[in-house]
Amino acid sequence: MRIAIISDIHSNLEALEKTFEVIEEHNVQEIICLGDIIGYGANPNECLSLVKARCQHVLLGNHDEAVFRTSNVYQFNKNARSAIVWTSRQLNTESINYLKSLPVTLVNHNAFFTHASPYMPQEWHYIITAEDALANLSFFSQDICFIGHSHVPAIFYGDKQVSNVEKGKRYIINVGSVGQPRDNDRRLCFGLFDTENFTFQHVRAEYNVKAAMEKILNAGLPEVLAERLAIGK
């Protein structure tokens, strides 16, 4: 089975629509979303509706949680906080109830899925380095743990970062960000996992960045949230 794993859409409808177009080209049987569907961008309701319709499994991210657990918003920087406040005013009741229903983890296909880390998943810890990944290996028993959260694609094996996976070894894989990449590459990013052949690849694609930026500015959201889309940072 081929699985597409998406994360960190952040209300970027242009990136999300392009992602689903690319997924259709890869003969994918299942789509899993690791959360942070909303925040930062200008189309929260539209992105939520599309994810709900297209993904077989959807998990909760910290930005998703912040719109209904408002005490968490103070953990964000001022731009992220402004975006969450704006987003919470845009969301309809159906969208908020949907977010409240989302689980934090998923175990499927001998893999562990979560937004941030297998260690205390709802505390939203970051896995940035190979050392971080190594410290998290004991908190799941499956072959692979798929994460998002940092917006930086990576494959961690043991205490190092690698470029591919091999059967019989255990990995933590960050699938990257659909809607707000932060690895100096503005193209959308998601993961593609073949469960039978035990292969994984990061998939990148261009999308209409200009349109997404203009929507953010027109909505009155912080300019930096638009500017960073142009450079992927």
Report strand %. Answer: 15-25%
What count of helical segments does DSSP give? Answer: 8
Shape: globular
How many separate domains? 1
What is the class in the CATH system? Alpha Beta
Q: Report the order of strands and helices.
A: EHEHEHHHEEHEEEEEEHH
What is the CATH superfamily classification? Answer: Metallo-dependent phosphatases
- Span between N and C termini? 33 Å
Q: What would you note in describing this structure?
A:
The protein is 32% helix and 21% strand. By secondary structure, the protein is of the alpha/beta class. The chain has one domain: Metallo-dependent phosphatases (Purple Acid Phosphatase, chain A, domain 2, 4-Layer Sandwich), CATH 3.60.21.10. Strands 4-5-6-9-7-8 form a 6-stranded mixed beta sheet, covered by helices on one side. A 5-stranded mixed beta sheet has the order 3-2-1-10-11, covered by helices on one side. It is globular.
